[in-house]
Amino acid sequence: MIVFAFTHSEPVETKQRLRDLERHGLRRDRLAKENLRAGALAGAGLDWPDFGGRQLAKAYADFKRRNDVAPRKGAQLLHSIGVGISPGWIREGGDLHDPSNPRNVQVFEAAIAWVKSFAGEDAIVSARMDLDEEGGGWVDVYFAPIRQQKYKGRSQTKSVISVNKCLEETAVSLGCPKGSHYSALNSSWAKYAQQNLDPAIERGTPGRDTGKEHLTPRQYKAEQEAKKKAAAAEAAEKAALKQRAELELATAAVGAERVELKESFEENAKTMLEIFTDPHLDNLEPKPRSGTWNAPHSFVSKVKKLGPLMGAVLKVLEAIAAKMAEIRARLDDIVKREQQLDQAIGELAGVQDRLTAEEVQAVERARALARPVEDRAPMDDPSPW
Fold first, then answer.
1. For the packed helices 102-119 and 181-196, what is the interaxial angle rounded to 10 degrees?
2. Residue partners of 77: CB distance under 8 A and separation at least 6
3. Element (H, E) at 3
4. Which of 7, 119, 156, 336 could lock 123 by a disulfide, CB 3.0 to 4.6 Å apart?
């Protein structure tokens, strides 16, 4: 694991900026509230000299009064420097956000000692190591170097807060060009960390060499959050595309199923039409209570093709068979009655025929008996003579 040491400097030039930094340290501004780690106690961390140091405006006023100093006219009030170590190095000693993690304590104390080493023992206004955010390994140190200012034409000197003079001295002592204050501070902290924390620690590569913009921890966090959001958006887009593809496949499957179902319905409808228009349907007998149903073979195979509909069709066929049996019984009864009527009519016709013949014979017999009598009767018409 590669461990880097790095710093970020910010001149504090106005009282308003001083109050802004104080509000952030006290966790009263929006950024601090947004950066608060879930479940963390706001303001949790390590402080110097105590938690009162977070009241930066008051600590600065106390510092000036205690040392009887003030900044030069138009100069910085004080300087804010962020001192950092790669969080992985701290995690080797325990939880990154644990104030009792020895490596958190080491980094915090080393950052303060390092600032004192070039700014002066009495230069620290306050310092804090926030452990209520997601990140770690970062110490904010506020210092106001006290230097002696000579007045032109006078032998007396006066103690003043002079950040630029301090930073210039530090750069020169490290063999850096004048004006390269912040680069010199990076080199100085890396060297101090190597000597007092871990020889394996490396100096962070300057932005001018990498071509990358130097980011504060909060800027870095914001950048990481943006990357996370971008990654989440990309993942969401991929999930949406996957879901869309799955939906399209499901839609295609449903469409194919609908076509198949339609074809199945059409085929079943055709089969049922063939069944119910089968000329042998009239011969269908009701299903016996026991044994095999003796259905016409011409549509037994068609019924079996219906699958799930087979049961419903069989019920209909059973009802048709029962109705056809009832109709056939009624027709048989009608035919039987017609035969009985035809027989009665035949018998009546025979009786009629017999009665007519007997009547003819009776008339003939009567005539036969009447002829002899006529032959013997006297003439009633007398002769005129």
1. 130
2. 12, 13, 14, 15, 18, 60, 71, 144, 161
3. none
4. 119
What count of other Cβ atoms lies within 10 Å of the Cβ of residue 40?
16
**Encoding tokens for residue 335?**
């035919």
- The one-letter amino acid at 381: D
Query: Looking up tokens 């879901």, which residue turns up?
Result: 243
Residue among 3, 21, 1 nearest 11 (CA): 21
* Helix/strand/coil for 36: strand
What is the pLDDT, as a whole number, of residue 218?
58
Rg, the chain, Cα only: 61
Average pLDDT over residues 287-300: 71
Longest CA–CA span in the chain (Å) reads 228
H helix count then E strand count, the chain: 11, 8
Residue 4 class from Cβ within 10 Å (0-12 exposed, 13-18 middle, 19+ buried)? middle
End-to-end CA, the chain? 189
Nearest CA to 90 out of 150, 136, 57 is that of 136
Q: Which of 32, 10, 37 lies closest to 22, judged by CA?
A: 32
| pTM summary value | 0.57
**Which tokens hold the place of 246?**
């799955």
Predicted pLDDT of residue 27: 92
Residues comprising the chain, all counted:
385
Q: What is the DSSP letter of 197?
A: T
Long-range Cβ pairs for the range 122-125 (8 Å, 24+) = 122/67, 122/146, 123/166, 124/48, 125/53, 125/56, 125/59, 125/60, 125/63, 125/78
Helices 15-25 and 56-67: crossing angle in degrees, nearest 10, is 120
**Residue 121 scores a pLDDT above 90:** yes
Q: Quick check: 47 and 142 in contact, CB under 8 A?
A: no
